[in-house]
Amino acid sequence: MTQTSDNVTWLTQEAYDQLKAELEYLSGPARTEVTAKIAAAREEGDLRENGGYHAAKEEQGKQELRVRQLTQLLQQAKVGEAPADDGIVEPGMTVTIAFDGDPDDTLTFLLASREYASADIETYSPQSPLGTGVNGKKVGDDAEYELPNGRTATVKILAAKPYQG
Fold it and tell me: What does pTM read for this prediction?
């Protein structure tokens, strides 16, 4: 998955290939499609009240932003291996924690860049307060992190396994 440090993003080969394919699609076929939508909407006449034109221009802007983000990410990426299944929390791991040591109050999440946010599992960045608190801890360890209100919360690491996406 990913680990970001000093403007370098570590990616597995699979993640790198997935992001590269998305960049190629957005830079090629998707760009052509949105350009065609804009041209078709222009032909309809008055651009001031042309909802299709404005929607296509907005879509184009979002695509171009994503192209710039992916380009920068991939330029700074280093490809490496998925994390080891050694019970130590690190980016690319599915982590289960218990709040205040309560085994009935748990959360399972993916510790990774938001690039890997998935509908099937919540994702926390390694730079988030929770991510920073648990990163580097072992199964069985307690970890502390700062809440938005300034208080400190304690969690117990119950499990840490490489993400199987």
Answer: 0.61
Tokens in use for 141?
A: 């360890």
pLDDT in tens, 58-109: 999 999 999 999 998 888 877 766 677 899 998 888 999 999 877 789 999 9
- Tokens 């991510």 identify what position? 131
β-sheet with 8-12: strand ranges across: 2-5, 8-12, 77-80
Whole-number Å distance between alpha carbons of 26 and 73: 15
DSSP labels, 135-151: TT-BTT-EEEEE-TTS-
Could you read off the pLDDT of 2-61 as tens digits, one per residue? 444 445 566 777 778 888 999 999 999 999 999 999 998 888 877 777 888 889 999 999
**pLDDT top residue among 7 and 155:** 155
| Cα dihedral sign, 144-117-140-137 | negative
Which letter does DSSP use for residue 102 in this model?
-
Q: Are strands 2-5 and 77-80 parallel, antiparallel or unpaired?
A: unpaired
What one-character DSSP code corresponds to residue 84? P
3-state SS assignment for residue 6: coil
DSSP assignment letter at 61: H
